[in-house]
Design brief:
Length: 233
Amino acid sequence: MSKNLHPPFGHEHVKVLSRKPLHAGYIRVDELVLRHRLFAGGDSEPFRRELIVRPRGVGVLLYDPERREAVLVRQFRVGMIDEPRSPWMLELIAGMVDEGEGPLQVAHRESREESGIEPVNVVRICDYYNSPGVGNERITLFCGQVDASAAGGIHGLAAENEDIEVVVVPYDELVAAVESGLINNAMTIIAVQWLQLHESEMYRLFGDSAQEPAPQEFAKAKIRSRPRPRPVD
């Protein structure tokens, strides 16, 4: 692999001069004053940044390879309040990692809470940072095998003001919704584009679970990874 793909600097080249909380409500925001190493040499002047502090997130694309249907959810999102079409977003099942949980456990828990069904096999798609210019939220994406004929209804936790509609989407319509911009959130776009690359081999990815046993954190799940898998942490 080319050395150009790896950064020349690390954490030792960043100096956090101060850090303090600015807000702690539905989201947490910290203020940092820091400086860091420059590509041209030397260090930057001290500068201030606000950082949105979020727990690790998990998204799961539920997919039925036999029926070639995906199970998505639709719910109100305050970040879409200025979206001309509608603030109700069509998206993956998703949630935050609570203390003592791993991402795989969250994928199963959120699937039950938001859709009423649970994947029988799971493959890890990728990890990515959602918006590192302003926040530290790290997302883990999974694809889970389900029987889409059992999906439907309204779900969510009333205590969290959730009102979630389950939407079953045929594969061709799913891809078209991404290409047209109807689906316009990064988590869902990444998962659907991954599915486009792997849809023809989903039976193998879901079915060949004997080679890699599930992590002890959620032993009953069957998890398959792509080549060179990263550990579920």
